Amino acid sequence: MHITFVVGARPNFMKVAPILKAAKQARIESLLLHTGQHYDQKMSTLFFNQLGLPRPDIYLGVGSGTHAVQTAKVMTAFDEVLEGLSTDVVLVVGDVNSTLACALVAVKRNILVAHVEAGLRSGDRTMPEEINRIVTDQISDFLFTTERTADENLVKEGIPKERVFFVGNVMIDTLLEHRESASKTGMVEALGLTKGDYAVCTLHRPSNVDTRESAENTVRALEILLAQMPVILPIHPRTNAKLTEFGLIERITENPNLKMVEPLGYLEFMCLMDNAKVVFTDSGGIQEETTVLGTPCLTFRENTERPITITEGTNQLIGLDPNRLQEALDRLSGGAHKEVKAPEYWDGRASERIVDVLLHHARG
Ligand code: UD1
Question: What is d(CA 155, CA 139) in angstroms, rounded to the nearest whole number?
Answer without folding.
Answer: 14
